[in-house]
Amino acid sequence: MNTTIEQQKTGSEVFWGEIAPCEHLVQIYADQGAFLDSLEGFVSAGLLAKEGVIVIATRAHLIALEQRLWTRGVDVSSARERDQYIPLDATDSLSRFLVKGWPNEELFDQFVTELLGRASRDGRRVRAFGEMVAVMWARGQSGATIQLEHLWHRFCQTKAFSLFCAYPKSGFTQDADASIREICAAHTRVLSR
Asked: Is the pTM of this model over 0.85?
């Protein structure tokens, strides 16, 4: 990893570098660029702090994120080999624990426990980004999405890792304000970007 990065921190990187364990954040975004800036800051700050970073995102967002990390000088391949950076496709990940469109708690616990074990190797703190909820929300599975948010939140509290979620604002069509309030209520902090 390029050590000169530490001397080039922006305001958002300072925020991401100071994020507390057990924090469950959400960003509802209208602009892809602003979202990717946030995701890049979250991931790069974790990698710079030698934390384990789990990213469960759409393929398009995984590709865009890795391009940004490479441009920044982050050795993504090396971090992946050490399980310090664990990128997973959101749709593939959902298939590991959804049963008839609903999160199976036991399968979810197994899935997350295995990921946290890999990411926390050598005593590393862990941070995770999850976009599975946005995928489910876009499918119209609002009840299952809220259930998944609660399962994640429980894990954040018991396993002491930070979790960042994001939803595109365009996914909130019917009674958007009420839906956004419901999603925000399932988190400890809402990012305004």
From this structure: no
Q: Determine the topology of domain 31-191 in CATH.
A: Rossmann fold (3.40.50)
97 secondary structure, DSSP code: T
Note every long-range contact of 144-152, with CB atoms under 8 Å and residues 24 or more positions apart, other chains counting. Answer: 144/98, 144/101, 144/102, 144/103, 145/183, 146/182, 146/183, 146/186, 147/102, 147/103, 148/103, 148/108, 149/183, 149/186, 149/187, 150/186, 151/103, 151/105, 151/108, 152/24, 152/112
Distance, C-alpha 140 to centroid of its chain: 20
pLDDT in tens, 71-125: 999 999 999 999 999 999 999 999 999 999 999 999 999 999 999 999 999 999 9
- The DSSP 8-state label assigned to residue 20 in this structure reads P
Distance between CA atoms of residues 165 and 133, nearest Å: 8
H helices within the chain, ranges in order?
11-17, 32-48, 59-72, 76-81, 90-94, 105-119, 132-138, 142-159, 176-185
CA distance linking residue 69 with residue 74, whole number of Å: 5
Give me the DSSP letters along 176-190: HHHHHHHHHHTSSEE
